[in-house]
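Quick one:
INPUT:
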């Protein structure tokens, strides 16, 4: 059974940093994209960042460019999100996600491309 478990969320002041981690178990995902999404109260789940199967390519929503860094570790079957210069508008539940087999036209920012999801970790940024 596939499980994705996020950790690292919490309460931080504006301008601070957090590092989210997501550990996958049940199978390895070395050929699959991995991503982070977030969902604020009353809003739809939105794309934050993604990495291709080997971490060689990364993709970011405009909201996180220059502040967030996604990385992955095949040996640990894990994906990470380093978040710096956090803003109150970054407050949300953050979800890690693992995609299917990578292909040329993969839509990294699309929720529907990711069949596996974690339970989410709360990030709250105070002003």
């Amino acid at each position: 059974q596939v499980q994705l478990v996020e950790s690292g969320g919490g309460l931080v002041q504006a301008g601070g940093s957090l590092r989210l981690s997501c550990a996958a178990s049940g199978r390895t995902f070395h050929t699959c994209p991995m991503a982070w999404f977030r969902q604020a109260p009353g809003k739809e789940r939105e794309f934050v960042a993604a990495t291709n199967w080997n971490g060689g390519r990364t993709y970011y929503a405009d909201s996180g460019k220059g502040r967030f860094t996604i990385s992955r570790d095949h040996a640990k079957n894990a994906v990470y999100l380093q978040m710096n210069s956090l803003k109150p508008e970054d407050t949300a539940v953050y979800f890690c996600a693992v995609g299917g087999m990578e292909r040329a036209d993969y839509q990294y920012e699309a929720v529907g491309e990711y069949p596996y999801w974690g339970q989410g970790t709360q990030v709250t940024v105070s002003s």
